[in-house]
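Record type: monomer structure entry
Structure origin: computed from sequence
Chain ID: A
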Amino acid sequence: TLIFCFHNKIGANMLVIIYLLFFGILSANVALKYKKEVVEILPVVFSAFVVCLYILAFFNRMWFMDMIAIVVTTSIIIIQYREKRFDFFKEWLNKLFKPSVLVFLSVAVVGVILLSDRGIWSNDDMAFWAIDTKTIFSLQGFSQPNLQTVPEYGDYPPVSQIIESWLMHIAGGFDEGLMLSAYFLAMQIYTAPILKNMPSKIIPSLMAFVWLFFIYSIGPNVLFDLSADILMGAIYGCILMLTLYWKKKSLFEYASLGIMLSVIVLTKSVGIQWALFAIIFIVIMEQPVLKFNKYHLFFVAPIASWISWNIFCRTSGRTTYLTEVLKS
C-alpha cells in the first residue's frame, strides 16, 4: 500500500482517501471531545497539519506527512475501539453529516473541480508564486542554501506554496490548475466557521451554498492569482471568529489559536503584524482588565515561527534585499 501511495496513480487516489479519512476522523474526534462543531475545528486541524508540513520542508521530507496521517488515523480508531466506545462511528457520522459540513464539502468539491483546469497567467505567479510552489513540490521541501530557483523575493513566507504543493502531491503530479484549487480549498477551510450556526434546513443550506460559491467566484484575487494577501485575511478573520465563538477558553482553545497565529505569520511577510493585532483582540475580548494568563504563553508560537523562517532565510541567502541590490 505504501509503495503504491508514493509511486503511481493508484497511490495518488489512495492518498486522497487517506487524507479525507485523516481530516474527517481527526476533526470529528476533536469536535466531540471538546464539544465543538467540525467547521470550527477544521481550520485548527488544518493549521496544525500545515505547521507539520512546514517543519518537514526543512528536511525535504514533506512526503512523510502521508505516513503520519495513516498513523494518526489508525491510532484514533484503535484507541476508540480499545476503550470499548463502539458507537464512535455513529458519533463521527453525526458530526460529519451536519448541514454546515455538507455545505462546506459541496462548495469545496465544486470549486476545486472547476479550478483544476485553469492555468497560471498572472505576472506575480509567473515571477514568484508558481515557480516557488513548483520548487517546493519537486524537492518536497525548501531548496538548499543559495540555490533558490526564484531570483528574487526569496524571503516570502511559504504557507500558500506548501498547501499547493501538498495538493499536487496527493493528486499525483504537478498541475497549474491544482495550485488555484489548493488556494480555493484553503480559503474555504478558513472561512468554514461562519457556517457554525447555520439552520439545519434544506433552504438555508442551499442559500448558504449559493452565497459562498458566489463570494468565492467573484471575490478579489480569490480565483485570480496565487497572492497570499486574501488567504492571510481569511486566516485572520477565522482567528477573530473563533475568538468570539470561544468565550470561555481553556488549554485547547489557546493552543488552537496559537497554532493558527503561527500559520498567519508564515503566510505573508506582514503576517507578524496581523498576528499581533489578533493577540491584542483576543486579550481584550476575554477580560475588561488586561491580566496575564498562563495560557498566553501559547502566543509565543507565532513569534517562534517568525524567527525560524527569518533565520532560515538569512542562513540560506533567501532575502529580497540582497537580490534587489544585485538586480540594481
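Annotation 1: Residues 28 and 94 are 9 Å apart (CA to CA).
Annotation 2: Confidence is low (pLDDT under 50) at residues 1-11.
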